[in-house]
Design goal:
GO terms for molecular function: DNA binding; DNA-binding transcription factor activity; pyridoxal phosphate binding. Residues 11-79 form the HTH gntR-type domain. Keywords: DNA-binding, Pyridoxal phosphate, Transcription, Transcription regulation. It is built from 15 helices and 15 strands. The two termini are 45 Å apart. A hairpin with a 2-residue loop joins β6 and β7. The protein has three domains: 14-76, Winged helix-like DNA-binding domain superfamily/Winged helix DNA-binding domain (Arc Repressor Mutant, subunit A, Orthogonal Bundle), CATH 1.10.10.10; 94-110 and 345-446, Aspartate Aminotransferase, domain 1 (Alpha-Beta Complex), CATH 3.90.1150; 120-341, Aspartate Aminotransferase, domain 2. It has helices spanning 14-26, 39-46, 50-62, 116-122, 136-146, 164-175, 190-199, 215-223, 245-256, 295-298, 311-318, 330-340, 343-369, 390-399, 431-446; strands at 66-68, 74-76, 100-101, 157-161, 181-186, 202-209, 212-213, 226-231, 262-266, 288-293, 305-309, 382-385, 402-403, 405-406, 421-424. It has 447 residues and is of the alpha/beta class.
Length: 447
């Protein structure tokens, strides 16, 4: 907007400038995605000090009206719906009827332990306000679960949240303000993208290769001002990458130069993983969190995640958890504990992890035989490279009766080239159906 435009930003103080922008957004004069003038240009236009314009933009970012994108400038925040885990959009083809959904990323219900036997034992005396937020018996089990994978020699604190997404949202909220930068894997888990965008943080993409998050990418993000890092040490979603021992060591070396950056390790796949857990948090790192959810092996409806952290992070996280409102129900805790301590349930969970890995390996073998070379990673889904844009292949697959997710939904880098990857969840396909998928996908990739 040029000076003299009747819709131009106005004001002589930071509060007035921010209110002017909000008014223009409310009236539709500024639309989602529209760029705002650079700080120096706006300050010159309004005849105010540069710091006044900076303060106005910061206030707007904190309130979620705009998104600060560093060198890419400041834009009006988008209200567009973001892709959701558990549901994949597909081109409409009524003549095909319902499409076979390979995009949901859901676990197999037949491989989730039955909760009913543990339910009776979980029901006990009522839990009242002011009681410990973690059930004592469950806390002992959780400490054994997390102890081998947290920094040695530190005072480790435990917190429970309503799932891993809830944990990451709370961890970022207690450490950051709107406009702060967060290093995220690129491509990235959908829920992490949503959390960062809704929180008004600035996502700094860090490339992921077959060994996980790259050290050079992390170093660049930290040099650009990342105040937090969210990393998946194994079964990275969507790529299936797990950290090698060498890569984990490289990342620890990079983070050693930034001991007060909050490092969140999202080990969402835990018991299902076929890969070892390799932490990037060194013994001297001061701000860290290990998050483990039960959703992938006990079912998404059992919303419970364990977070092991350093004491400072735990104390700040506790401020966002209060008795009777945002704590995790003791009934759910006892139920999860009752299931997880049963040998038969643990055996079924291990069977599930093997099943997912076997199906992915078989699909990778069939696709490779069809001329689409692929090595299966860890995790519940496959990350399939294509010789042409994934959106084109998706449309052709829909005509053949398949619904899939393109890699575009998982991308962070602004202005990136169209993705040449699909994410497929194939664990419920058998024999001939899996062979048909491989043939259809190969044909769709060649069209």
């Amino acid at each position: 907007m040029e000076p003299g435009d009747e819709q131009a930003i106005s004001g002589g103080t930071a509060a007035e400038i921010a209110e002017s922008v909000r008014t223009l957004v409310d009236r539709g004069a500024l639309a989602p995605g529209d760029p705002l003038p650079p700080v120096r240009a706006l300050a010159a236009q309004l005849g105010v000090h540069r710091n006044t314009a900076v303060a106005a933009y910061r206030a707007l970012a904190r309130s979620g009206v705009v998104i600060a994108q560093g060198r890419a400038g400041t834009r009006v925040a988008s209200r567009a719906a973001l892709p959701q885990e558990g549901f994949a959009e597909a081109p409409a083809h009524p003549e095909q009827g319902a499409l076979r959904d390979l995009g949901s990323g859901n676990p197999d219900p037949a491989l989730i332990p039955d909760l009913a036997p543990a339910l009776a034992a979980a029901v006990g005396r009522p839990v009242l306000y002011g009681e410990p937020v973690i059930d004592p018996d469950f806390e002992l089990w959780v400490r054994d679960w997390t102890a081998p994978d947290v920094p040695t020699g530190q005072d480790v604190r435990l917190t429970l949240t309503s799932g891993a997404v809830d944990a990451i949202e709370r961890l970022l909220a207690q450490a950051l303000v709107r406009g702060d930068a967060v290093a995220l894997e690129d491509p990235c888990f959908l829920a992490s993208i949503q959390t960062v965008r809704h929180g008004g943080y600035r996502a700094l993409p860090v490339p992921v290769d077959s060994e996980g998050m790259t050290a050079d990418g992390l170093r660049a993000a930290l040099e650009e001002g990342a105040r937090a890092v969210v990393i998946t040490p194994r079964a990275q979603n969507p790529t299936g990458a797990s950290l090698s021992a060498e890569r984990a060591a490289e990342l620890r070396d990079v983070l050693a130069e930034h001991p007060y950056v909050l490092v969140i390790e999202d080990d969402y796949y835990s018991f299902l993983s076929r890969s070892p857990f390799r932490s990037v948090v060194g013994p001297e790192h001061r701000r860290w969190a290990l998050v483990r959810s039960v959703s992938k092996f006990l079912g998404p409806d059992l919303c419970l995640a364990v977070t092991a952290t350093d004491p400072t992070t735990a104390d700040r996280l506790a401020l966002r958890l209060s008795s009777g409102t945002t704590w995790v129900s003791h009934l759910l805790q006892r139920l999860a504990h009752g299931v997880l301590r049963e040998q038969s349930a643990r055996e079924l969970i291990d069977q599930a992890g093997s099943r997912y890995a076997e199906r992915n390996a078989e699909a990778a073998r069939l696709l490779t035989a069809q001329g689409l070379p692929l090595t299966a990673g860890d995790g519940m889904s496959l990350w399939v490279p294509l010789p042409r844009p994934a959106q084109e292949v998706t449309a052709e697959l829909a005509r053949r009766g398949w619904r899939v997710r393109t890699g575009d939904e998982f991308r962070l880098a602004p202005g990136a080239e169209p993705s040449n990857h699909l994410r497929l969840t194939v664990h419920d396909l058998e024999g001939a159906e899996l062979e048909r998928l491989a043939a259809d996908l190969a044909a769709a990739a060649r069209v």
